[in-house]
Amino acid sequence: MRKEKYELPPEAIREMIINAHCHRNILDESCIQVAIYDDRLEVTSPGGLYNGLTYEEVMNGHSKIRNKGIANIFSQMGLIEAWGSGIKRILNAAEKYGLPKPRIQEFDNMFRVELFRKNSLTKRERIDFIDELELGRRRDGESSEKGRRRIAILN
């Protein structure tokens, strides 16, 4: 049987999105934002930490649920294993996949979790690949400007 291996751990992405819904400030008209970049996935939710909760407490597994109704529904669906376990599960999933440690930030009344991709090519592999591109460019008579743009994308 074929087992799929994803670039980013699905369990971390699921936790990021569930946490964003359970802890967002529903009085803020901003949307939960999911942004996908070349090097990372970000989930940003409106509303900072709730009811005096500190960053250190969050990192130690403490939780104060802002949206209890939403959290209860997710719990009844089996999507929440234990209260306060979301951040720890994100960190563990990233470590299990060999990814850099996720960045967790609170700023401007927003809360963001960033899950970073692995650098798919080592520095040596990138240099070798760029050298191959440069040789091919010269061989094919490609303009220098077009070659520089192609190489800039890799860096």
What does this structure look like?
It comes from Roseburia intestinalis L1-82. Pfam families: HATPase_c_4. InterPro entries: RecG_C_sf. This is ATP-dependent DNA helicase RecG C-terminal domain-containing protein. It is a single chain. The chain is an alpha+beta fold. The protein folds into two domains: 107 residues, Heat Shock Protein 90; 32 residues, no CATH class. 44% of the residues lie in helices and 15% in strands. It contains six helices and four strands. It has a four-stranded antiparallel sheet, with helices on one face. Strand 3 and strand 4 form a beta hairpin. Helix 1 packs antiparallel against helix 4 and helix 5 runs antiparallel to helix 6. It is elongated, with a radius of gyration of 21 Å. The two termini are 38 Å apart.
User: Strand tally, please?
Assistant: 4
Q: Count of DSSP helices?
A: 6
Helix and strand pattern: HEEHHHEEHH
Q: What is the averaged pLDDT score?
A: 80
Radius of gyration: 21 Å
Number of domains: 2
Q: Which CATH architecture of the largest domain is right?
A: 2-Layer Sandwich
Enumerate the strands of the largest sheet in spatial order, edge to edge or round the barrel: 1-2-4-3
Distance between the termini: 38 Å
- For the record, what CATH class of the largest domain applies? Alpha Beta
CATH topology of the largest domain: Heat Shock Protein 90
Q: Which range does the strand content fall in?
A: 5-15%
Overall helicity: 40-55%
Q: Outline, from the CA principal axes? A: elongated
Largest pleated sheet: 4 strands, antiparallel
Structural class: alpha+beta
Low-confidence parts lasting 5 or more residues at pLDDT below 50?
none
